[in-house]
Amino acid sequence: KLEEFLNLKQLKTSLKEAILLDYYTAGFWWAKEMNFSLIELSGFMDLLNFLLENLSGKRMTLGDNLKELGKAMAGIGGTDSERSGDLNFFSIEQAKAVIDYL
Fold this sequence. Notes:
Blueprint: H1 2-5, H2 15-33, H3 38-56, H4 62-73, H5 92-101
Helix pairs in contact: 2-3, 3-4
């Protein structure tokens, strides 16, 4: 269960935990509907966590968070020497879909 994996202990009484579960569940099912491979699905879930942590933990502005997203996706679709982002396992079409989702 996702709530166990996320270590959500007060799901029935905590609105914050319910929202977190919904956030990750929606992302997971969207990625599954996109037919992402296991590596792509894992990378997408990491990206969701990264963006949420930037907003909640680091208190980044939305603009700064979008810049971080751009850095993470830099090089998708380029040659190996041009790739500098961590998400180079996504195709250009998948990257566009991810951005549209977010």
